[in-house]
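Checklist before submission:
- one chain only
- standard amino acids only
- sequence pasted in full

Submission:
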Amino acid sequence: MPSSHVSANVTPSPRVPGTPNAAVNRPPVSEKPDYVLKYSLVGHRKGVSSVKFSPDGNWLASASADKTVKLWNAYNGKYDKTLEGHSGGLSDVTWSSDSRYLATASDDKTVRIWDRESGRTLKILRGHTNYVFCVCYNPKSTLLASGSFDETVRIWDVYNGKCIRTLPAHSDPVVALNFNRDGSMIVTCSYDGLIRIWDITTGQCLKTIVNDSNPSVSFVKFSPNSKYILAATQDSTLRLWNYHTGKCLKVYRGHLNENYCCFGAFSVTGGKWIVSGSEDHCIYLWNLQNKEIVQKLQGHTDVVLCVDCHPLQNIIASGSLNKDRSVKIWKYDC
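Returned file contents:
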């Protein structure tokens, strides 16, 4: 079966699924970015489900429903290698903090750990009973967390490949998860409409955030300083939450997101922007503070499922579904 992330005929929406404190409190920034398309990277045979820059900024990984990850030079778009081994489509990819290893989430119900340099599989993590949809390293890269259509989150010891904790996280597929900056907590979200924060050591649910209208939550991520949470819902809305108080601080609208799990991201290398893919084939950038759409990037020919922001430079990567299948690199020289 094609990756649940990108299957065009699965309904609903299978991916249908921090910001420094000063950035939130300071006056609105008036200048706008001017990202332009630099490279279109082709090679995937099906839709692109996840794009992630390596923490050192040198590499871009793209995961696809074609069961592979491709590695590209983040600065010039040059193809490096393909990671093959999964028997089902991929929905997510994540990097270790030293940029030496990657982990992937697959419809084959496994998570694989890969060596970047050799392209070889190092470990296969088995235990989920349905598609694995999202995966994330903790900041020390000693643990992996994975979320699945089996409605659980599993925490894995990277060194021995053993599952050390299973969280009965949600009552619907777990479609996104993310560690906070010190690795003590994880945030998860689901089609059940809930955002949950968990203590990694105890496995206890510390907080549940629910929006009044209870739309399906399709993406969630801590801000770079871990004081806030960015969440996307399938009512074409992104929200910035203070998870300590459970209060919604900012609402970002204007894009289209009703059927897929479109990634969101924080861009903090230039101005402070919120970035998201969209089902109208575009990428949207908002001013984090005043919520104004500051740029709309056009160039893809299908749903833009995934975006990521480079850790060091003003570079955005994006990936698109089956009618497009490309990875695009956008740059802003300010």
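Reviewer check: The longest helix spans residues 21-25.
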